[in-house]
Q: What sequence folds into this?
């Protein structure tokens, strides 16, 4: 009886270990399609933001980061990427809330109404934006082979907008 239980335990352990190794090798939970949806959402939104006046870009990018995080929110394998994008979203949201130009109207960008930040706060906005982007890119570069493979295109898109407030 003891030998049978030990054999079953060993077999189950080997199966579980084999699945973990196979999952890592095959990227189970990750997909090129999911990564591409995130990159497309981000790039399309970023392109629209770049057409807006600089004072409106902070709020515009805040919304783009939020939209992109929502695109990957249901894919548990992308949890770390979602966290990275959500942090940028929250940092920018807080900045816009604290530095909104009360004298500027809202503009429609990417189908949404965005607020302007004050001209005086733009140097600080650049610093917050760039620091947030840098932190997100570090997370998106991943630590496992699967994360690196699937997050790299997202990291590249995010890094590409680092100087968007110049």
A:
């Amino acid at each position: 009886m003891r030998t049978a239980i030990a054999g079953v335990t060993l077999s189950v352990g080997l199966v579980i270990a084999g699945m973990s190794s196979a999952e890592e090798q095959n990227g189970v939970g990750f997909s090129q399609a999911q990564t591409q949806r995130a990159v497309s959402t981000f790039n399309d939104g970023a392109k629209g933001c770049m057409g807006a006046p600089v004072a409106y870009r902070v709020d515009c990018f805040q919304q783009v980061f939020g939209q992109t995080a929502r695109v990957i929110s249901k894919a548990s394998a992308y949890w770390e990427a979602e966290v990275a994008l959500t942090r940028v979203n929250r940092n920018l949201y807080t900045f816009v809330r604290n530095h909104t130009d009360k004298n500027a109207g809202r503009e429609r960008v990417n189908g949404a109404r965005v607020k302007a930040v004050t001209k005086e706060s733009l140097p600080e906005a650049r610093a917050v934006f760039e620091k947030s982007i840098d932190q997100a890119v570090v997370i998106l570069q991943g630590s496992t082979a699967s994360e690196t493979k699937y997050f790299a295109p997202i990291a590249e898109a995010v890094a590409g907008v680092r100087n968007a407030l110049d």
About this structure: The chain has a mean pLDDT of 87. The beta strands are 107-109, 112-114. The first strand starts at residue 107 and ends at 109.
